[in-house]
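task queued by scheduler; priority normal; single chain, no ligands, no partner chains; default sampling; output format set to structure tokens
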Amino acid sequence: MGAVAKMLGKAFAGGVAGGATYGGLKKIFG
């Protein structure tokens, strides 16, 4: 759980790039 929270925090800190990457993965696997 901690790792997931850390990953999400990193994505948010990454800004647009992080959001785009996370969104892309969610689109592919979601």
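post-processing summary
- DSSP finds two helices and no strands in the chain.
- The CA atoms of residues 7 and 20 lie 14 Å apart.
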